[in-house]
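Example record

The entry below shows one chain as it appears in the dataset: sequence first, then structure tokens.
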Amino acid sequence: MPNGGRSSFSLTSPGWLAAVTLNAYTPIAALQAITLTTDRIYMGGLFQQAGAHYRHNLAVFSRPVQPLVQLDLRASLGGVQQEAGLLSDALRAQNLLPRQEPYTGLGIPQHLFGGGEEADVPVFAVADSTAVVDWVLVELRAADDPAEVLATRNGLLRRDGRVVDVDGRSALTFPLIAGAYHVVLQHRNHLGAMTAAPVGLSSVITTVDLRVDPGYGTEGQQSVSGTNALWPGDATGDGLVKYAGAGNDRDAVLLRLGGASPTSIIGGVYDEHDINLDGTIRYTGANNDRDIILQTIGGAVPTAVRVGQVP
């Protein structure tokens, strides 16, 4: 900082230091510039030192170091084909995964610096059991009010079921104090799932496995060969899976194909209408996306609706 010494600035915004001693100058005129970053405020202006000397200077206010909780989350997606117990990484293998998380662009609110995460460049080159399947959104919610989102983090779901940070291996971190939180996993075309009860989290990495957690609500996840997985088929992103009626997901898939020819195919896409995440949108034939929607609502009554259980 220029012109060392001490100062007597004060700042009262929540979460910031209430007062900082910076240099021997006190402001005597309107500040000329204010620049904000996620953890700093820079202020420039005209300051007065004892003895009536005037100088331009720069003041810096810092946000205190935030406590962190660490989460090692495990989960599965019901719409994704499995190979020897591992989720398919077809999107990654076709170079279709975006480097930046997609959820901000879909209009999903982010909290406490969540949003805009970018995967490290080498991550999508990994092709073994730790290869990336897709981006997911993880939320920590209040223990006493599961509808209140406290923090979000966009992570990468791997073939082995682990949800990791953008480096492809680290646990997710959230700027919250140690305590009990509901853990929620959201995906762009699956119904979200939440832990049945709040989970204690701290700076020590805690493992939460949604594949064995009964989940919040009634049938909050589907069972795939004895493993819990998020319900697939929410192509419209409204928290419901519908095969018929207004706003249904089946029609959304057909309309994405042009609406006229159900045998049309769109390949090589990263798209919410690609329910099974194989990089191709199909309405009929092998590996089509429409059948998954019907299976999610029960397979027998096309007017049934699967309602997401995350409040």
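Notes for this example: The chain is about 5% helix and 35% strand. Confidence is low (pLDDT under 50) at residues 1-32.
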